[in-house]
C-alpha cells in the first residue's frame, strides 16, 4: 500500500484497488516480458501492457521516438509481441500483487474482438481498449469516428467480463466530447484513459533542418509537458459530462507530483506516466509519489481521492 507518512496514495478504478495512483502509460517500457516484470518490481500502482495486436509487430522504422526538454514525439507503430504472447505473460505477472491492465488494439473490429476474448480469459484486472493510436500509416484513430467507436465497443463488450475502459484521443471541441458520452455509456465503458498522444504533430530540428523521427515524414504523437493543458482539459470535460461517475485515468504531462495533483483536481482517479517514464526510468514512480505526498500534506489533503475534482472555477 502506498502510504507516504500520513498521506494515502492508493486509489480504486472500476472497483479494482490500486496500491498507488501512479502507473505506466500503455507504450512506456511495457512491450517485452522483461519490461513488464521490471514494472512489476517497481513502485508502479499497476502493470499496463503495450497495446497488443493480433500479429506480433516490430513497428515503424527508427528513429521513431525523440525526447526534447518539454516533451516527446513518437511514431512507434504498435511494436508488440502479439496477443497470444501477452495472454501467456499476464497470468505470470500476478505474482507482483498489483493490478494488470491489458491494452488492446487492432486494425479492424474483428481484431479487437478476437484479442479481447482471449485476453479476457487470461484474467487481467482491467482491459483498456485503445481507440486512439495515431501512428499506423493509413489507419485513422477510431476514437475520432463516433459511429465506428460505438460499433466496436458493442462487439468487444460482449466478450469482456473484467472492467473495460477506453483510451481516447484528445478532443478539441466540446461537441465531440458530448457526442462520445452517449457512445461510451451505450458501450458499457467502466473507465476512461485520457488522453493518448496528441496525434500528428511535427517537431523540427532547425540545426539539421530536418524532422526528428523517420516514420510518416516526421509526423507523430506528442507527449510530455507540452500536452498537459490538452490532457487536463479532456479529463475535466469528461469528468463534468459524466458528473464524476466514471473513473478517469489521467495521462499527459505527468512529470511531477504537482502535475499529477492538477490531474486529480480536474477529476482523475489515477494517472499514467509516459514520456517521463521513458526518459527517467522506473525511479520516476518513487519520485512522483514523494512529490505528490509532500504537496498533499502541505495543502492539508489526507489522500489523493480527497482532492479529486475539486478544481475551483472563477
Ligand atoms: C505507437 O505504438 O505508435 C503508439 C501507440 C498509441 O499511441 O496508441
Number of strands: 18
Radius of gyration: 18 Å
Number of domains: 1
Quaternary structure annotation: single chain
**Biggest sheet architecture:** 8 strands, parallel
The CATH architecture term is: Alpha-Beta Barrel
What's the shape?
globular
Which structural class is indicated by helix and strand composition? alpha/beta
Mean pLDDT: 97
The CATH topology label is TIM Barrel
What is the chain-wise order of helices and strands? EEEEEHEEEHEHEHEHEEEEEHEHEHH
CATH fourth-tier homologous superfamily: Aldolase class I
Distance between the termini: 36 Å
What does this structure look like?
- The protein has 314 residues and is an alpha/beta fold.
- The chain contains nine helices and 18 strands.
- The protein has an eight-stranded parallel sheet with strand order 5-18-17-12-11-10-9-6. A four-stranded antiparallel sheet has the order 7-8-16-13, with no helix packed on it. A two-stranded antiparallel ribbon has the order 1-2.
- The chain starts with a strand and ends in a 15-residue tail after the last helix.
- The model has no long low-confidence stretch (mean pLDDT 97).
- Succinic acid binds at residues 27, 51, 75-78, 130, 132-135, 196-197, 221.
